[in-house]
Amino acid sequence: MSTRNENGIEVGIYTLADIGPDPFTGKTISSKQRMDEIIEAAKLADKAGLDVFGVGEHHRLGYAVSSPAVALSAIAQATKHIKLTSATSVLSTLDPVRVYEDFATLDLISGGRAEISAGRGAFIESFPLFGYSTKDYDELFSEHMDLLLKLNENEVVSWDGKFRPSLNAAEISPRPVQEQLPIWIGVGGTPESAARAGRLGVGMALAILGGDPTRFKPLVDIYHRAGLEAGHSLDKLPVGVTGHGYLAKTTEEAKDEFYPYYANYWNYVNRQRGMGRKMSRDEFERAAGPQTALFVGSPEDVVEKILHQHELFGHTRFLAQVDIGGVPFHKVEKNIDLLATEVVPMLKKAIGRKKKVEAL
């Protein structure tokens, strides 16, 4: 069952595959167990009827996935219907030819379910790892995105650039099941990134990790305006929203359960960035307030937040990250179930009702 076909919005989950210590026991699971649980989560999401499963890319200890295409290929063999996307591929430091061929291969394995979400990443360790300079941060991404789009459009490509060898009538193989792979750009908050996504005519995936979501409305306007000025139609300019989430029967229960893991997550992520301060419960309560973009609460309250953002952005995709900070797998499983059985039906009903009113 496709939720987008029925209610105008795709709903799914994604993971960055962080391996955080349990905040209660201090114990950390192995990379093997984390990978097994990610594959199992994808199987559960597929069986529950969710639309999309995403896997992120990191190149540091503390994360289980450095190659989303490889992880998603394993997931493709264990699922039947769910779309499979990176979340995101750090395109600045990846060879676009390798990225395209890997995801085209994933598309063949999965029967046409592969997508690419490209971004510049939250960390910079991939730059020295693959021999690039952070001085070329933006220029690398622009050039690699230009090439990736050409590879997606053409079987034979000639191309010249600054950071990789030229291509002269190069045959790009394999070709995917889909006519072209869906490509999105992950946007964290910069107008330049939103305008780039619009000019290129690719999807824009907004990473909204907290705060007031209305601050992202100008980015959607910039994205659509740039896309229209470049000759793209609005139906070819989809907006997706990604964010942290946690569901329970009541909002208080959700907040009580999630706070230790959420505070734990930001504690070790900020340490990785050279900072470090534990989030207080009061800070968490403010972060999870009804007017914020942190999707923590009962299914009803989470639906209200999604619908509020739908009014702002008109987005066609919502992906929640529910496995951060050492959340144990049985709680991830519960979140998948609540998302599929309670959130999706309420969204379907509310958006369907809105469409009927707009059609009058």
What secondary-structure arrangement, pairings included, does this model have?
Blueprint: H1 3-7, E1 10-15, H2 31-48, E2 52-55, H3 68-78, E3 83-86, E4 89-90, H4 96-110, E5 114-119, H5 126-129, H6 137-153, E6 156-159, E7 167-171, E8 183-187, H7 191-200, E9 203-207, H8 217-229, E10 239-247, H9 251-272, H10 281-287, E11 295-297, H11 299-313, E12 317-321, H12 329-359
Parallel strand pairs: 1-2, 1-12, 2-3, 3-5, 4-5, 5-8, 8-9, 9-10, 10-11, 10-12
Antiparallel strand pairs: 6-7
Helix pairs in contact: 2-3, 2-12, 3-4, 4-6, 7-8, 11-12
What would you say this structure looks like, in words?
By secondary structure, the protein is an alpha/beta fold. Helix content is 47%, strand content 16%. The chain is built from twelve helices and twelve strands. It has helices at 3-7, 31-48, 68-78, 96-110, 126-129, 137-153, 191-200, 217-229, 251-272, 281-287, 299-313, 329-359, and strands at residues 10-15, 52-55, 83-86, 89-90, 114-119, 156-159, 167-171, 183-187, 203-207, 239-247, 295-297, 317-321. The chain is globular and about 60 Å long. It holds the Pfam family Bac_luciferase. It comes from Virgibacillus sediminis. Keywords: Monooxygenase, Oxidoreductase. InterPro entries: Bact_Lucif_Oxidored, Luciferase-like_dom, Luciferase-like_sf.
